[in-house]
Design goal:
single chain; 354 residues; alpha/beta; Isopropylmalate Dehydrogenase; 10-stranded mixed beta sheet; 10 strands; 39% helix; binds adenosine-5'-triphosphate; binds magnesium ion; magnesium
Length: 354
């Protein structure tokens, strides 16, 4: 019997609700596996933990995460819980940096044509939407947000720093992923204006030379916002800077039904953390209506990443169950215009596991 040790971070807002739904799916999938078991340890991290104990990300929690085989996170942060400089506490970003989870993987897939605001996508004759955004997670515009600055200035700055190491390793992961898919990798940048991005492009071009079998494109971020609305089916894997990836992944989620349909993985060379792309959605927290699909699909990514034949099989079972349930337009949560609650859609997904 192989035991996998999973750290569970429910977090704040709707985090605990979507994580509980995913754990029910995990337990149901586990009964269908041979020779593997999951031991889940819950850790308190986030705005709620800060309000209780004064630290949103205790060192003991980080130490425990480092021992685990993988980490499943709900969502963290609340608009009212801020640092003295006015910015929200974002332990989910701090964890990426502490565990060096530089590779933000955000798959975007349309399960039913009615989920998309675009016409002509999905369905039997429609074009599929099926691409992955690779977001650099550890540097770029987000990385110096906590650097202390002198008080009382009548200006403030943020630094967009891209290092060779940072760009190289994330581009390499994007190309490796493209190789397993449709062999197309698009760089999204602003190399025409920003020297940091011109540098990113230079590194991308160098890495591209290592992958002659992968076709490449280079698109400016503003043009990508346009193309994602006009022709999302033409993209396979795209790689971009931290904040551009943050913004593009919300736009991309909107193409396939919203944040409740967008899973993600934050991967490094040692650790893997899996979470929905959405935040804590405080306005719908506690109502039992949050869409758990993004978290359930993140769980499937976690199981795939554990890289054992049985966990990979579980990942496929879960993905197929989600595809079957979400492929039926009768099965809609409130964010997709339906009336199923968190529990009801989770039960349907569990029933569809085969
Ligand atoms: P963050 O700063 O952490 O990215 P955010 O401020 O961008 O968070 P989200 O919490 O992602 O905001 O919410 C964006 C919108 O999507 C809100 O209207 C929210 O209610 C909705 N939303 C997010 N996740 C879900 C979900 N799982 N189910 C239903 N609606 C959701
Ligand atoms: Mg957001």
């Amino acid at each position: 019997m192989i035991k996998f040790d999973i750290s569970i971070l429910p977090g704040d807002g709707i985090g605990p609700e979507v994580v509980a739904a995913s754990l029910d799916v995990l337990r149901a999938a586990e009964t269908r596996l041979r020779g593997v078991r999951f031991e889940c340890t819950e850790l308190s991290v986030g705005a709620g933990e800060y309000l209780k104990n004064g630290d949103p990300l205790p060192g003991s929690a980080i130490a425990r995460m480092k021992q685990a085989d993988a980490i499943l996170l709900g969502a963290m942060g609340l608009p009212s819980v801020r640092w003295p400089n006015g910015v929200e506490m974002t332990p989910q970003i701090d964890i990426r940096e502490k565990l060096d989870l530089y590779n933000g993987v955000r798959p975007i897939k349309l399960y039913h044509e009615s989920h998309s605001p675009l016409k002509g996508y999905g369905g039997v004759n429609g074009k599929p939407i099926d691409f992955v955004i690779i977001r650099e997670n550890c540097e770029g515009l987000f990385s110096e947000r906590l650097t202390p600055r002198p008080a009382g200035r009548d200006f403030e700055t943020d630094t967009l720093k891209i290092t060779r190491r940072g760009a190289e390793r994330v581009c390499r992961e994007a190309f490796k992923l493209a190789r397993t898919r449709r062999k197309h990798c698009t760089l999204v940048d602003k190399a025409n204006v920003l020297p940091s991005m011109a540098f990113f492009r230079k590194v991308f071009d160098e890495v591209a030379a290592e992958f002659p079998d992968v076709q490449t494109d280079r698109v400016y971020i503003d043009a990508m916002a346009l193309f994602l609305v006009q022709r999302p089916h033409t993209f396979d894997v795209m790689v971009t800077e931290n904040m551009f990836g943050d913004i593009l992944s919300d736009l991309a989620a909107g193409l396939v039904g919203g944040m409740g349909m967008a899973p993600s993985a934050d991967l490094g060379d040692e650790y893997g953390l899996f979470q929905p792309s959405h935040g804590t959605a405080p306005t719908i927290a506690g109502k039992g209506i949050a869409n758990p699909v993004a978290t359930i699909l993140s769980l499937a990514m976690l199981l795939d990443w554990l890289d054992h034949p049985e966990t990979k099989r579980a990942a496929r079972l879960i993905e197929q169950a989600v595809a079957r349930v979400c492929g039926d337009p009768a099965n809609r949560t409130a964010d997709l215009g339906g009336s199923l609650g968190t529990r009801a859609i989770t039960e349907k997904i569990i029933a569809a596991l085969e």
